[in-house]
Specification:
The chain has 148 residues and is mainly alpha-helical. It has 4 helices and no strands. Helix 1 packs across helix 4. The longest helix has 32 residues.
């Protein structure tokens, strides 16, 4: 991997971390707002879906600097299925088996899913890239009239 490619990938990781922080804060805020009004798992699921939509736009524009398209928008939830499964299993285990407070457990479960989310979202939002490689010219900016 060239020095330029390593710097570009490091930039993506830093931007992903920033977006992840904002997204996690958004998710957690929505979850805490919904938690008193509905069962914790329903509040978790709704907060997850709403924050995933925000995550799509923050990651396309800021993290990977690519254009959002309907195709990417429709594929992006597939990358989050893994995230959702890891977080859901973690949430269930932390609450049911470890007795963790339902207000804190989603945050802990989310931390575990971060590496998986980065690799999968990069693969979806920058078509043609593998988890560890990137074209020498940087992120792709495909030309498409079908933007979101």
């Amino acid at each position: 991997m060239s020095d330029h490619s390593r710097r570009a990938q490091l930039g993506q990781i830093v931007r992903f971390a920033l977006v992840g922080g904002v997204n996690t804060g958004t998710f957690f805020g929505i979850y805490l707002l919904l938690h008193p009004w509905m069962p914790y798992f329903a509040a978790y699921t709704l907060a997850f879906v709403l924050s995933m939509i925000g995550s799509f736009f923050m990651n396309t524009y800021f993290t990977y600097r690519t254009r959002p398209t309907w195709k990417k928008f429709l594929l992006f939830p597939l990358t989050n299925v893994t995230n959702y499964v890891i977080q859901s299993a973690g949430l269930y285990a932390l609450v049911s088996w470890a007795g963790m407070d339902t207000r804190i457990a989603p945050l802990v479960a989310a931390v575990v899913a971060i590496p998986f989310t980065f690799l999968l979202s990069r693969k979806i939002l920058i078509p043609g890239t593998g988890a560890a490689s990137e074209p020498a010219g940087g992120p792709s900016r495909e030309r498409s009239s079908s933007t979101v």
